[in-house]
């Protein structure tokens, strides 16, 4: 699946829920998916600034493919960052930086997340794109 396909998939899943509490529950359920982030990555180097909760976002580049691992100390935030990692992982850096869709708007985060959490989600996406940009630079050297 492409980044756009993943965004559309999550949009369809979230659009099923009418009640904000059901959307919160969906995000909290996402927090349980995937591997736990090892403690050695829960350091300042991987912290996302501008989030109300603590969020760690760890990039990995292998064979030109970018993947992300993440964790947070808050379930909803952890669910959001896990969704973002799923959307952007398994891609070449150019695909990540070229995608300009507003995920926070398309996934309707404005209706289910507080302003602070929306800003946090924006900062997570910004960090993912910064990592991708750094990887592009290192691959072209």
Give the SSE layout.
Blueprint: H1 3-15, H2 20-30, E1 55-62, E2 65-72, H3 75-88, H4 93-98, H5 103-106, H6 109-112, H7 115-140
Helix pairs in contact: 1-3, 2-3, 3-7
Care to describe what's here?
The protein has 141 residues and is mainly alpha-helical. Helices cover 55% and strands 11% of the residues. The chain is built from seven helices and two strands. The protein has a two-stranded antiparallel sheet with strand order 1-2. Helix 1 (3-15) packs antiparallel against helix 3 and helix 3 (75-88) runs parallel beside helix 7. The longest helix has 26 residues, at 115-140. The model has no long low-confidence stretch (mean pLDDT 91).
The tally of strands reads 2
Please trace the helix and strand order, writing H or E for each element. Answer: HHEEHHHHH
Shape: globular
Count of alpha/pi helices: 7
Biggest β-sheet, characterized? 2 strands, antiparallel
The secondary structure category is mainly alpha
Across the major sheet, the strand order is 1-2
* Global mean pLDDT: 91
- Binned strand content: 5-15%
Which features characterize this protein?
globular, 7 helices, two-stranded antiparallel ribbon, 2 strands, mainly alpha, 55% helix, single chain, 141 residues
């Amino acid at each position: 699946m492409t980044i756009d396909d993943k965004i559309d998939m999550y949009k369809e899943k979230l659009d099923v829920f009418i009640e904000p509490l059901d959307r919160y529950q969906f995000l909290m359920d996402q927090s349980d998916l995937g591997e736990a982030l090892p403690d050695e990555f829960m350091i300042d180097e991987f912290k996302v600034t501008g989030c109300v909760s603590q969020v760690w976002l760890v990039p990995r580049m292998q064979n030109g493919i970018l993947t992300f691992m993440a964790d947070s100390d808050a379930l909803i935030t952890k669910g959001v960052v896990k969704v973002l990692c799923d959307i952007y992982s398994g891609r070449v850096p150019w695909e990540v930086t070229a995608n300009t869709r507003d995920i926070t708007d398309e996934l309707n985060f404005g209706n289910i997340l507080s302003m602070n959490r929306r800003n946090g989600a924006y900062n997570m996406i910004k960090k993912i794109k910064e990592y991708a940009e750094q990887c592009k630079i290192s691959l072209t050297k």
